[in-house]
Amino acid sequence: MSNSDLLQRSLAAVWHPCTQMKQHATAGEALPLVPIARGQGVWLFDFDGRRYLDGISSWWVNLFGHCHPQINAALRAQLDELEHVLLAGFTHRPVVELSERLIGLTDGSLGHCFYASDGASATEIALKMSFHAWHNRGRRDKQEFLCLSGSYHGETVGALAVTDVPLFKDAYAPLIRPASTVATPDARLASDGETPVDVARRAAAALATHLERHHEEIAALIVEPLVQCASGMAMYDPEYLRLARELCDRYEVHLICDEIAVGCGRTGTFFAHEQAGIRPDFLCLSKGISGGYLPLSIVLTTDGVYDAFYDDRTSRGFLHSHSYTGNALACRAALATLDIFAEQQVIAANLPLAERLATCLGPLAAHPNVRHLRQRGMIAAFDVLCDDPRFAQRFYRQALANEILLRPIGNTVYFMPPYVISAEECEFLAAGAIAALDAALPT
Ligand SMILES: *Cc1c(COP(=O)(O)O)cnc(C)c1O
User: Fold this and answer.
1) pTM
2) Which of 6, 253, 264, 354 could connect to 35 by a Cys-Cys bridge, CB 3.0–4.6 Å?
3) 282 and 334 within one domain
4) Do 327 and 390 have their domain in common?
């Protein structure tokens, strides 16, 4: 097997996600499709012996590197016991243990776990549950949702309603029942003399105004705590979450924390919302929860929401399901992931690692084309001053040539490495990114 053989066959048979396929085919400027033969730690290897440092954790899912021996062993053991069983009317050890441990991580404030297979489904479940819970409680007017500008909560038709990324949404506008959008607390919006806390308070004031007028119709506010990842790593102060929690309580609106990307230690605490000292009514998890191994998503919610469905009438139940709900292998991968967090005290160990990343990227702050160098835990990002609409693609290609996988979002270059990256690999990543930046900028 060679790179070029697999590349040609893939282009003929596989329709790749988030891709204009013609960009892979056009001669000359063609974007390289990279066939991966195997992975080890932070490294991916192609069929021709080239390697790439996975600086974005394979779309933010990988936590402890590729082919982690402990997760591999857990999956092998699970394979010999049970691969999958339906979760309606049946249960199994991995799903029970995982639920108990996740509930424990919320100190019991979110007492019930509902399962699906991907992030967008978790969003859909949280929206449906919120609406249905209010409905069951006699609050029939609560049919609307609220999201932040620049939000991303997935790309199924329902999830697009609360996603504010025009590139993903506009083509499907006629299919979507859009939510209302309120101001983002993105700290980059600070005017002269404003702190990130000031921006958070200003955005919360806009939220207060909206809720005051419309709370009777609003079921839930959905947010990505601390970092709006997909729209370009917009980071904001925890003050916004504290104020949003207060407002949601005052106006009887559910707060949904979508921690699909920022959960599992990414921002420096196991859950990002912990940094605001709050708890949501719904918590969506996916991506890293299975260590980046298998599709799995979970919606945790409160006893109060659960009780709104608990009834003699079937129709008052939550009748949502997916075929692979609570898959035993995926739950086992998640349990192995949580074991690693506990045994290796990953949250504490990531503190010096995040500092190391900051030190390595520090020189970028002085680069004439770099703005808003920012970081929250194991996510770092900067914006690039450049008018060329092909910047992201040019940077991506240059980075691959430097043996690193980085995939800018527009003019935002970001880093979200696996937590097993070494000091030397951090330096390699930063040096490769700086070189790629200079090569990608027009001369
Ligand atoms: C990735 C992501 C989703 C969607 O998850 P999928 O598994 O890709 O459907 C939803 N919300 C956030 C915040 C995400 O980052």
Assistant:
1) 0.98
2) 6
3) yes
4) no
